[in-house]
Amino acid sequence: MKYFWKISLIAIMSITAKIADCAQVWPCPGACINAESNFPDLEKGVILFDLGLPQTERPSVYGLSVAFWRSNYRELMLGAQVGLLENRAADMYGGQLGIANSAGRGVGVQFGLINEYDDVSFRIQAGLWNSHRLSLNWNYGRPSHSGGCGVQFALVNMSSEGWHFQFGLLNFADASTVFQIGVYNNIDKKSRGLQIGLINEVDADGIPFVRLHW
Q1: Distance between CA 149 and CA 161 in Å, rounded?
Q2: Residue 2 CB coordination number (10 Å)
Q3: In sequence order, which residues have a C-beta less than 8 Å from that of residue 94 and are 6 or more positions away?
Q4: How many CB atoms lie within 10 A of CB 1?
Q5: Model pTM greater than 0.70?
Q6: Peptide bond preceding 29: is omega within 30 degrees of 0, i.e. cis?
Q7: Per-residue pLDDT tens digits for 48-106
Q8: Most CB atoms within 10 A, among 55, 73, 105, 166?
Q9: Interior CA angle at 117 toward 63 and 22, to 5°?
């Protein structure tokens, strides 16, 4: 529960601070074709709707963001973010739909082939690969802020710190509290949880079917 209250408090403080900074948000929809052709200025956030032709990058959006290539919100995305290739947001409260999704603090859902979370957050992720900070060599490093929580559905699920429910072919957890269901489940000795699968490993020590490590 401590993670829930921590995430809730951060969410309220973050959204309140961003809305209070009215000078950075124009009360209108936005559109972007390139760095020279955009409305309003790309240093301003927008409300209701933001269109990227093919991409957009702003501080914030409050509403629906649609980009035919990619979109990036350096401060806050509050609503829904849809991009053909990539969606990124520093703080994200809502949903992301695209091939690759990445978000820092916040609460929401991610649907895509690759979904990445970081910072203090709660996420429901569904895709091919769900991860705390995508790493091709599967080396997480230390999270900048611990406490990420959520539910992961994918062929490969990876979590680091916090607590997670993982349902997939391959599940990995580092310093986490987890419930894993999959063909291959792996946690390190700093983690604790219940594993149900064909192979259940704590570090390199594996047993079949069911394992409780607490």
Answers
A1: 8
A2: 7
A3: 77, 78, 79, 80, 81, 108, 109
A4: 5
A5: yes
A6: no
A7: 999 999 999 999 999 999 999 999 999 999 999 999 999 999 999 999 999 999 998 89
A8: 166
A9: 35
| Residue whose token pair is 């739909």 | 97
Structure tokens of 114?
């690759």
| 8 Å CB contact between 87 and 97 | yes
**CA atoms of 134 and 146, how far apart (whole Å):** 16
Distances (CA, A) of 143 to 97, 117, 139, 156, 159: 24, 10, 11, 19, 10
**Cα(151)–Cα(107) distance, integer angstroms:** 12
Distance of CA 67 to the CA centre of its chain: 18
List beta partners, residue 94: 79, 108
Determine the residue type at 20: A
- What 3-state DSSP class applies to 44? coil
In Å, what is the CA distance from 126 to each residue of 98, 165, 174?
11, 12, 20
**Which tokens belong to 179?**
């419930």
Residue 210: C-alpha distances to residues 52, 152, 192 (Å) = 48, 19, 14
The residues that bridge with 99 in the sheet, in sequence order, are none
In the chain, where are the structural domains located?
1-98, 119-204
For the chain, the first-to-last Cα distance in angstroms comes to 18
Q: What is the pLDDT of residues 136-175, one digit of tens each?
A: 444 545 555 556 889 999 999 998 888 899 999 999 998 8
